[in-house]
Specification:
The complex is a heterodimer of chains A (445) and B (348). Chain A is mostly helical and 445 residues long. Chain A contains 13 helices and 8 strands. Chain A has one domain. At the A-B interface, α2, α3 and α13 of A face α3, α4, α5 and α12 of B.
């Protein structure tokens, strides 16, 4: 446990997971707020502008937490992963610098105008501020995912004489096919979070017979967007992501499925526990040939097993990787079913009275957060034992002069600070939800 | 090419200090210049539109270092490990205090976050000033380009080195007073009534302290690192920067006396920009001077990214920089005039 690498990994994993609880909501909400504002402008209906105003307040609070927990992330590349930053800065420095100068300035400049400026700006300019936040937050997402994509599937680089990686073809690096697929998959998943939260609050108000207008608008917008986004997360984006993993990280695919023996007509595990010491999947319930089809579009394709790879190249935590992947896929499937049902009732005009369904929607909102987190854990645990896939191992990336005592100290510091912030944040969000939407210019509480 | 990126990084750092500096200063002063909740909200209204964007200059400066000088970023951030995290935690608490304060009108709630806002705003410039002190003093960079410094060791800049010693703490305190002066002049410009009057009065208190501390820090730097001063004398850019900061410092004094608040704030900005530009021009090409052996130092040439990286960065980076200037111009124009406390729910 005095190994600094362990604490570096734990700290980065914890701070990035915690941070990403906020952007996944704000990126999703940014799109939905643009929709709410657009409908409000078109129709002039106050329930749409009331709902937009409420969601902008929630957005602002989440955005602020996203900013303050995001600032450390950029620095932790250097503090905790100095060897990695030194070796790859010639490549990923490009996208990280782009994120700062193209995305962060745009978001931060117009945030206060969006959150506080509705009255002063007027309808059209306020809509533009919403667009600016949407563009900024989605751009930011792309640059950071392009950075991650280089770690997953390095392209467009060359290795210099001193062993560092240098960008050789900028466009090839920035438009890494992995980045495009991962981005679309991730953004759709963010919209799932945004729309489930919106639908949950709408359903909650509906069940309590409060704020009828904003409740109906939030519920309908959340359900419609939630259905589309849930489907798009699975297909085509999730499917394409799976095929990329199969093509570029076959050992990861084997670990995600707890597949030790390779062979054709590979089955997809629905339930089962990977038993790594005995190299088998315990208590399996499997769908025959489906994995072959998902990975290669052919039911009889051969899918390799972990036994075919040296153990030193296996992901370091096969069990957690397996569960992360299955939690993500399992929840994703449930999301489609739930939202399809809700959309059906909405179309029949019966959602308002389907109280059992409203109850489910009101309490389903934590699960997209779990699914998003599990998805990122799948990506990042699946990348192990590499920092840059096939080129640089995780153990080579840690800061050479930071000892375990320092790394543990800062890990504990983050744990304490984020615990306090999390409690305050939850209390404030619950307050806002119970208060509901405000009229323009109404005093706070 | 390396020289250009060195200059760009210096520009970004200087812009960060000037921009986030005024909201650090406002935060460190707000307990003194704003007594009632209404006055506190006036201070927050003055910096509210900008503070988040101002902080981005730090991230963008980090981005430039990452892109152009990855070894400097990696060695510096890991070498100053604990101090960096102190700064990050302070920035987290600061952002959180600004945002969370406004959500509840309760008096105790607001007092609590006001206190956090004050402490975090005062601590950040001390840490940043000490960082500059470390760069000027030098750090024990090894032959492999890495180093590690504890937070403190012997408190002497010539003995066993730590991040904090009397010299770097002097730099930190000087930075704090410079930022207090800067923030007071910003508030004088952007507020009115009692808050403005108190800010002007406090700027008058900070000014002589700043001049005295700055002279002291300059003398200490000259004794500790004479090479920097020789370079200062030989480089026209450094002379220009010196003229700018002396002119800025004088202007901030004269304009304040005349009641021209904007000119005084611009003078203070020129002072900060000039001091940092003069420092950058004198230390160039060295980023991190090694106290073990000068040949171990990390410089703009031995720690730069590849030539293609530097060249291709110049295709897109200026576009983003100009866009950022446009955003800030829009913000300052939109919020021109004196800031008033926002109605509850419509501002911080």
């Amino acid at each position: 446990m005095t190994d600094p690498l362990f604490w570096h990994r734990l700290q980065f994993g914890f701070t990035i997971t915690y941070h990403y609880l906020f952007p996944q909501l704000t990126m999703g909400l940014a799109l939905l707020i643009v929709v709410l504002k657009a409908v409000a402008m078109r129709t002039g209906k106050t329930e749409w502008s009331d709902a937009a105003r409420f969601w902008i307040r929630i957005f602002g609070l989440n955005f602020a937490l996203g900013v303050v927990t995001g600032v450390p992330m950029e620095f932790q590349f250097g503090t905790n992963w100095a060897a990695f930053s030194h070796r790859t800065g010639g490549v990923i420095g490009q996208t990280l610098a782009m994120e700062g100068i193209f995305a962060f300035f745009l978001e931060s400049s117009f945030l206060a105008l969006l959150v506080f400026g509705e009255r002063r700006l007027g309808e059209r300019l306020h809509f533009l501020a919403a667009l600016a936040l949407f563009a900024g937050s989605w751009l930011s997402g792309y640059f950071i995912i392009a950075t991650n994509a280089f770690m997953q599937n390095p392209v467009g680089y060359e290795i210099a004489a001193d062993g560092t990686f240098q960008v050789a073809r900028l466009a090839e690096f920035v438009f890494n096919p992995w980045a495009i697929v991962e981005y679309l998959h991730n953004q759709m998943a963010a919209v799932v979070t945004g729309s489930f939260v919106m639908a949950a609050v709408g359903a909650f108000w509906m069940l309590r017979r409060e704020h009828a207008g904003a409740a109906r608008v939030s519920l309908a917008t959340g359900v419609v967007a939630g259905l589309f986004a849930s489907m798009l997360v699975a297909s085509p984006t999730g499917h394409q992501q799976g095929r990329l993993v199969a093509a570029t990280q076959p050992v990861t695919l084997a670990a995600m499925e707890g597949r030790f023996e390779g062979g054709p007509r590979a089955s997809l595990a629905v339930i089962g526990q990977p038993n790594v010491p005995e190299r088998k999947l315990d208590n399996p319930i499997q769908l025959p040939a489906i994995l072959s089809w998902i990975a290669y579009g052919d039911f009889s394709a051969n899918v390799r097993g972990l036994n075919e790879f040296p153990e030193s190249d296996w992901p370091t935590n096969v069990e957690l990787l397996y569960y992360s992947f299955h939690v993500m896929v399992g929840l994703g499937t449930i999301f489609i079913a739930l939202m399809a049902l809700a959309a059906l009732q909405l179309a029949r005009g019966k959602l308002d009275s389907s109280r059992w369904l409203l109850w489910m929607l009101a309490f389903a909102f934590p699960f997209p957060y779990i699914a998003n987190t599990a998805g990122w854990m799948t990506a990042e645990l699946g990348r192990q034992p590499w920092l840059v896939y096939g080129l640089m191992r995780t153990a080579e990336g840690a800061s050479p002069t930071v000892h375990g005592g320092s790394a543990l100290f800062t890990t504990l510091g983050f744990a304490g600070l984020y615990l306090v912030l999390g409690i305050v944040f939850l209390a404030l969000v619950l307050r806002e939800v119970s208060h509901g939407p405000r009229a323009l210019g109404a005093a706070a509480h | 090419m390396e020289a250009l990126w060195f200059a760009l990084a210096a520009v970004m750092v200087a812009a960060y200090v000037v921009m986030d500096g005024f909201d650090f200063g406002a935060g460190a002063l707000h307990l003194a210049v704003a007594r009632s909740d209404r006055e506190r909200r006036q201070v927050l209204a003055a910096i509210g539109p900008y503070w988040d964007g101002n902080e981005v200059w730090l991230l963008a400066a980090g981005g430039v270092l990452f892109l152009a000088f990855p070894k400097v970023l990696a060695s510096g951030l890991s070498g100053f490990y604990l101090a960096i995290f102190l700064l990050l935690w302070v920035l987290i608490l600061r952002g959180a205090s600004i945002e969370l304060r406004s959500h509840v009108t309760d008096g105790m709630w607001r007092s609590f976050w006001d206190g956090v806002f004050f402490l975090a705003s005062a601590l950040a410039p001390v840490l940043l000033g000490a960082a500059l002190g470390n760069v000027l003093r030098g750090v024990p960079v090894r032959a492999d380009g890495w180093f590690a410094l504890p937070l403190w060791e012997s408190f002497s800049p010539r003995g066993a080195l730590g991040i904090l010693d009397w010299y770097t703490v002097l730099c930190g305190v000087t930075a704090l007073v410079a930022i207090l002066h800067h923030g007071a002049l910003f508030l004088a410009w952007k507020t009115d009534g009692e808050v403005r009057a108190r800010s002007v009065r406090l700027a008058g208190v900070f000014f002589p302290a700043l001049v005295a501390l700055w002279l002291l820090a300059t003398l200490a730097t000259a004794r500790l690192t004479p090479a920097i001063f020789r370079a200062l004398g030989e480089r026209p850019l450094a002379w220009l920067a010196t003229v700018i900061f002396l002119a800025g410092l004088s202007a901030s004094f004269v304009a304040r006396k005349k009641g021209n608040d904007l000119a005084a704030f611009i003078g203070s900005s020129a002072f900060l920009l000039g001091v940092l530009a003069a420092s950058a021009a004198s230390v160039y090409p060295t980023w991190l001077e090694s106290t073990l052996d000068p040949s171990f130092s990390l410089t703009a040439t031995n720690s730069a990214a590849g030539a293609y990286s530097l060249r291709v960065g110049l295709y897109w980076w200026p576009v983003g920089f100009v866009l950022a200037l446009v955003y800030f111009t829009i913000l300052f124009r939109f919020h021109r005039g004196k800031a008033q406390a926002a109605a509850e729910g419509e501002g911080y």
